[in-house]
Structure formats: C-alpha cells, structure tokens
Amino acid sequence: MKLQIFTTGGTFDKVYYDALSDFQIGDPMAPEILREAGVTFDWEVEGLTRKDSLELTDEDRELIRSRVAACPARHILITHGTDTMTKTADVLHDIPGKVIVFVGAMQPARMRTTDAPFNLGFAIGALQVLQDGIYIAMNGRIFEAGKVKKNRAEGRFEDS
Question: Where would I find the L-asparaginase N-terminal domain in this sequence (predicted)?
C-alpha cells in the first residue's frame, strides 16, 4: 500500500502556548506518529493548509479537492479539524477510484492525553479494508461521508 497523507491543520497539529488557549498550528504530527509506530508501508505527507477548520475557506476546500483528485495514490488520508471535517468531505463526494479517510483529534497530538495516535492508526487500518469512497474515522468508528455529524456536547461523532 502507498498512502498519501494530506494535512490541513486542526486540533491534530495544534500547539498551545498559554493558559488562555492561545494556539498555532504546528508541523504535521502524522510523520512522527508513523515513525514511532514503525509502520512498514510507503507513505508521503503533504501539508496543504495550517488552519483551524473553522477558518477554512471555499478556496481551501477547492485546493484540498484538486490535490486529492490529482493524486495518483488510491489510499488517501486527510488530517482535518473536527468542526468542519464533514463539510470538506462533502466537497470530495464525486472523486472516483479512491479510498479517502478523514481523521482528526479532540486533543492535540502533542498533548500527553490525546486521541490522535489512536485515531490515526484506526484510520490507516480502515483505509486498507474499505471500498472506494469517502469516510470519517473518529471515536473508534468509521462513518460514511454525508451520514455523520459531530456532537459537540458529547465530544464525539455519530450517525446523522
């Protein structure tokens, strides 16, 4: 398997600087997590944006769409902020011949208590068995794009 990872920022890559939650989007954390896990498949990471997902624009989503559509890899993972992950997934709805999985985190990967490594590994495992389509991997579940929503009050994703 050759895996293409596109990063967009979001909580997955956030770095917090003070108690008032001032943050910036740091370098992508997926490469560090994959190296620590000792994965044995080929992967490549390309950063597309470094934004909180609430700041993503239609132009950013078009960039994501164009890079995914042009990518020769069949297996594509997109790290993305959880607040608008479903909206970006909808923009990719008609890209054929690819397994595309969005993944994010409720806590930054740099924090000691985080769901990021679990979510990333879970998403990569799912990529290897899913049929072509667009999916969201969060909270130990796989959701089809267009059939999922974020429950902010509960801090999880669920069927819509």
Answer: 3-154
